[in-house]
Structures are given as structure tokens and as C-alpha cells.
Predict the 3D structure of the following.
Amino acid sequence: MIIKGKIWKLKDNIDTDVIIPARYLNTSDPQELALHCLEDYDPEFMNKMEQGDIIVAGNNFGCGSSREHAPIALKAAGISCVIAKSFARIFFRNAINIGLPIFESEKVVEECVLGDRLEVNSVEGTIKNLTRGRVYKINPLPKFVQKIILAGGLMEYVKEELGLSSKD
Amino acid sequence: MGKTITEKILSAHTDTKNFKLGDIIKARVDFAFANDITAPIAIKYFKESGAKQVFDKKRIGLIPDHFTPNKDIKSAEQCKILQKFAQEYEIDHYFEIGRMGIEHTLLPEKGLVLPGEIVVGADSHTDTSGALGAFAIGVGSTDLAAVLALGEVWLRVPSTIKFIYTGKLNKWVGGKDLILYTISQIGVEGANYKVMEFSGEVIKNLSMDNRFTMCNMAIEAGAKTGIIEPDQITLTYLKGRNQRPYQVYQSDSDANYEKIVQIDVTKIEPQVAFPHLPENAKPVNEAKGIKIDQSIIGSCTNGRIEDLRIAAQILKNKKVHPRVRLIIIPATQDVYLQAVKEGLIEIFISSGAAVSTPTCGPCLGGYMGVLAKGEKAISTTNRNFVGRMGHPESEVYLANPAVAAASAIVGEIVNPEEVN
């Protein structure tokens, strides 16, 4: 998978309440959730961002509530992937499970600024900063997690376990 | 090398032999649950998977507690999904309004989550049940859907940080202050992916209600869960309550911990966590004089009977400040009824407080106490993120029930000692 896009740079501890405020959780419709993505961080975020943009953030991205609406809102808004120094554990699971690509890298985060263009190659395990001409190696995900991603998400894995997979 | 309580519980629930820290294992789940926000997505994915039945209809809880009693049409539609699913799949533990309570208080109270079990809830505060010596983890909706279908969960074997609390608790200091202080020491990411095991002479003498409060907020340090070894206090709490037999595990004296943190509680004052992170806890005296518009006493953190008793002790024969809205929310119907029997509700209403039926409501800015722009609240809830209780320019200060009650009387944040 190759992802290219320009970045938005966010700080440490971006919580899921900020990604999608609870006042909008009376629906689980992805498109409706996307309308309010990161609204409490920057009310104009959805007007400013473009399809395919990448979020680059500090430590503990996605902390707080377990709401899967957070990665759903980011994905439906058109965010192509999130790169952070670290992720809160429930957000990490949720993102993998719903197929929002996420990557951990301290260096990429430290050495890029708002508006830089990045190219992520998940097969090679590299992130290129196209604006600054730098290349970074990223750590591979645990094998079982890769298996879930290859299956096409956790529910595809469940179907395989239940013998209901269309791939069988 | 000995084992921690967490390692022993995981060993008893997996077919993987001799796993190491960091390994990914599949573990059998004893109880799984979701609420009106997380269940609709889980149910959708469960149905789309083609699964014909749930793993065990006696071991699933559906609890509409966040936006209930239904705050609007959309919330009502979400709750309907839970109700219909419970009927269709004959789920034993669906809790309708009037019998419902906040999930993390209700499930222990009903004896549905037990020591030695693996509990998976689609809500981050599932860690609350760790106070019973269960391994209780919060997950998202897709993970929960997979558990509903398979009765198992994948997880990375976590390391454990052991916290040993010693010394004598000061007046008005309880589980809430211990956990806020602890988070202030290690930070909101201080236990990311790890287990926080609470122990020591102070914990040994702490009531179940206070233990639940501590484990509840382990997630605010990023932890996978919080856990406390069961003892006589746990077993007494469970007597006549547990709906299944259970197994008690203890950590070995030579168990392997990533870190051991000693905390002398003698120096801990009632704590107030400033906006916008739970790690911003300071002694209450440093918050003195901050004017508040609202005080909330309730939630899965502090909506239990002991919390209400403390609030009543402060509020008896006192009046809420004319400028302040005090909203008190018993976490479950049983807590509410007990508070009625003890005369606490009369004290609350006489003081000028509003008392609500159980709901998560204002904790997440859902309803029943949403803040306007620029407003400040003192609250016994667990999060003070930007916009958590309403307008993005409102502020939440986290504290224990005594501080929240005392501050409601004075109209600004105070040490309960000044009111009592």
C-alpha cells in the first residue's frame, strides 16, 4: 500500500472526544460523523482539509473513550493515514480493526511541519518526506496484527474462523 | 519466577502455553458488554459477519446508559437496536430503563463480572471491574462484535506496574484522590499498554466503592486495565451477589513487575485535576477560589452509595450557592433506592440540588448538565478533555464527591474542611 498526501500536524494527547465530540454520537453513520471530525480542535478543520491528507501527531494519539466513531470519522473524512509518536491502545486496535492505516514514528513526527508532503510505503516499511527529501524506516506491526490487516479487517478474520469466509 | 495475578488469569483463559510478555494470545472471554453508543456498531458488524448465534447468551450484557432515558430521536433509534438484538438473540442481561444503571457500576453490583474472569466491554472504563480481581479491558465496537461471535479476544500480554500505597489517609481523601495523584505522577501515557496493579496496606483497608473508583481511572494513564487482588473485603462484597462460581488469583511474591512505585498517602491532600487532562491534578488548596457554574456528583467513577453518603454529609443543612447548579446522579437504581432509604435524597433536594435517574449524561457532554461557553464545572467524573462536558470553551475540574459538594455550596472550589 502506498499513501501520498500533505500533512496536518497535531500535538500530544489528541483524545477521541476532540476527534469526534460525544454530542454527535447519537448516530453511527460515517458520513454524518465525518462532518464533525476534529471540530473541537479546529472548527474549520473539515473546510480546510483535503481528501487524502495525512494526520501527523505526537504521543498518545486517540486517548480516552473507546468510541470507534473516532477512527470511523477520520476515515470517512478522507484522512488517508495517521502517523504518531505513539497511539493509545484502544484507538490502535480500533484503527486496525476498521482499516484506517496507522504508523508509529518519532523521527517522522519531529522532522516534518504543517503542509509537508509524505509518501508512506507500508510494504517496504518506509515513509518519505517528499518536501524535505528524507526517508525513514518504520517498525513493522506485530505478525497477528498483519494477519488481521491481510484478512481485510477483524470481521473478515472472524468470518474465516466461523468458516463463513467468501475466500474459502 | 512467580506470576502476577494478570498472568495467572490469562494462563487460565488461553491455549497458548508458556507465553511471554508482548506475545499476542487468544483468550476466552467470560463476560462481554456494550452500551447504547458502542453496541449499534458492534451489532451491525456481528450481523454482517453472518454469525448465526452469539457465543453465550448468558454472558453478554447490553446496557443503554449513555444518552438514556433517550435524549432525542436518534438516541432512541440507537437504543432500539440494542433492545431488538437482545430479543432476537435471547440475551439474558439487557437492562431496560428503570432497571438500568451505569454499566461499570451495574455489572459488579449484579454479580455478573467476577474475580479471575476476563471481561471485555465496548467502553474504555471497563477497567473498573479490575477492582474485583478480574482482567477487564475496554475495546471498540468491532472487537466487541468479534467477541460476540467467537467468545474470544486477541490481546498482547501486558507487563504490570505495581503501585504500593502506604501511610495514613488524610481526612476527605479517598480512592479518587489516590488515582488522580497517581496519574499526576506517571502522566496520561504513563501506563500505556500496561496493567496497573494497586496494592499495599492502604488498598487492603479500602472499601470496594473506593477500589472501583481507582481501577475505573487506570485508563486515564493509558493502562490496559487496573487490578486489585481479591481479599476478604472482595469476598464479602460478592457474597449472595455472584451469579457464577469464580476463581481467586493472587500475585506471587516473586512475580515479575516492570516497575514498582511506592506512594506514601500521608502527603496526599484532596486532589483537583485542572483542564484539560486528568494528569493535571494538584492539591485542592491550589484550586481554591476558582468560581464554578456547575457541580456534578455521579458517573461510573463516583456514583456509588459511599460517594452519595459523603456528599450528603457535606450538604446536610446547607444550601447550594445561588449561582451554582448541583446535579447528583446515582449510578444505578439500587444505589438510588439505598440513597432514598438512608434519607440522602431528601438532603440533596433540600439543599437545592437536582437528582437524576441513572445516566452517564453530563460526563461526556451528552445531556442532563451540558456546559455553556466559558462555564466551569467541578465534577466527580473521569475526564476533563476539551469539550468533554459541553462547549469546547467550557472547563471541567475533576475531584472527589466531598470537594464537589463543598464547592457547590461555596460557589468556588474549596477544601471540604472549610464547609464541614
In short: Chain A has eight helices and seven strands. Residues 89-98 of chain A form the longest helix (10 residues). The beta strands of chain A are 2-9, 54-57, 81-84, 102-104, 117-121, 126-129, 134-137.
